UniProtKB/TrEMBL annotation:
Keywords: Hydrolase, Signal. InterPro entries: AB_hydrolase_Est10, AB_hydrolase_fold, Xaa-Pro-like_dom. It holds the Pfam family Peptidase_S15. The lineage of its organism: Bacteria, Pseudomonadati, Bacteroidota, Cytophagia, Cytophagales. GO terms for molecular function: carboxylic ester hydrolase activity. It comes from the Bacteria. SUPFAM superfamilies: alpha/beta-Hydrolases. Residues 153-396 form the Xaa-Pro dipeptidyl-peptidase-like domain. Residues 1-26 form the signal peptide. This is Alpha/beta fold hydrolase. It comes from Hymenobacter wooponensis.
Amino acid sequence: MLLITRRLFCSIAVITATTLSASAQAPTPLTGNWSGNIAATDFIFHIMEPASGPKTATLDIPAQGAQGIPLQFATTSDSVYLRLPQFKAQFAGRRGTNPQQLPGEWQQNGQRFPVTLTRAAEGAVAAPRRPQTPKAPFPYLSTDISFPNAQAGIKLAGTFTVPQGKGPFPAVVLLTGSGPEDRNSTVYGHQPFAVLADYLTRRGIAVLRFDDRGVGKSEGSLVTASAADYATDAAAAMVWLRAQPSIDKKHVGLAGHSEGGTAAIMAATQKAGPDFLVLLAAPGLPGDEMIVQQVLAINRLKTQDAATLAALEKQQRQLLNIIRQNPDNEKAHALLRDLLNPTHSTDPQVVAAVNRNLVQLTSPEYRHILADEPSKTLPLVHCPVLALGGSKDIQVVGTPHLAAIEQGLKAGGNHDVTVRELPGLNHLFQTATTGSVAEYATIEETFSPTALQIIGDWVTQHTRK
């Protein structure tokens, strides 16, 4: 996701880790749904701790409309850790004598919030219905792999799906959007990249999808990374794919969603770039203009008052100008603080919220987004391109971005360009009513079948031998 995903996480940003004391209680299986109230906010943890195999956990924050946030899950004989490493946040709990409770702490913003997680009765917290999520057995080979990014000095972990039968097969690398994303692009209980990979592989196209830096089993960190760094991850993924005997080395492409599209475009300007590109809700406007249009689209769902929208636009442009004109974070923070907290409130919650925003707004990734000028990179892309957007996308507003992408590509002489705005689809390519982020979790559809078919047909057409 682009930008808004980060805002959903702003209440769980920075913490200091501590270790809880040990207990002699023997380990108890933790599989189930656990809930607790942290700083007046309900958190729901979905934990899977099988007798063998990997442990997994996700987090829902209903008040923020967030579901399925992937967590790192680790245990010792007496302790439980549920971590959001990309935000340096964690729950640290202790196994006690009561197997239905986990006493512990949520550690955040230099503070510790005592909380006891309580296991819900079986079936009390139903997982959201996601009928498109692929379920084994699969009619293709699926393997967990890792590959190096030598330039960054890290290893990235992912899943490689290959059609059965005689190859070599065309292949595509899937690139997630901004914020910490696992290989399935898990969000709100949806796994759009698992759905897309399954669809394409069933159609004879191999797919590599991987965890972002610092997420899941991938090394590295997103804290200092930008789309330019992510582009090197994409390049490393293509190198790995082209070395596989089952892959047609002349038909390896990239499919990037949102900011992943920005990374895909950057990778396509380099040597040994992709043989084709699929851009899904990718920005075509300059970064600062993209953010302004996003803010206006979000607020148009709340009001049509011209004066209110004009004031919001003015404030947003002022904020972005401060960031762009002040590369020194200390100076930028001083100016932004006055804008974000004009009354100079000393309320701890207000101060903490402002500080979180300051970190986000001056992070390397956000600065890179602001500085992005697709009009300069798109003319350098000469491979075939499919660019899709949704008419109800309020994060990367479809019409202006798609027009800018088409214009930029054709300005460089690229004539194999297909651009389509798909009616009724939101930023996640779900069939939506308003396009609001609040709908993402409530919609059962993970990925529009129409969009899937368009992608599959186009890739098949452009990878025929």
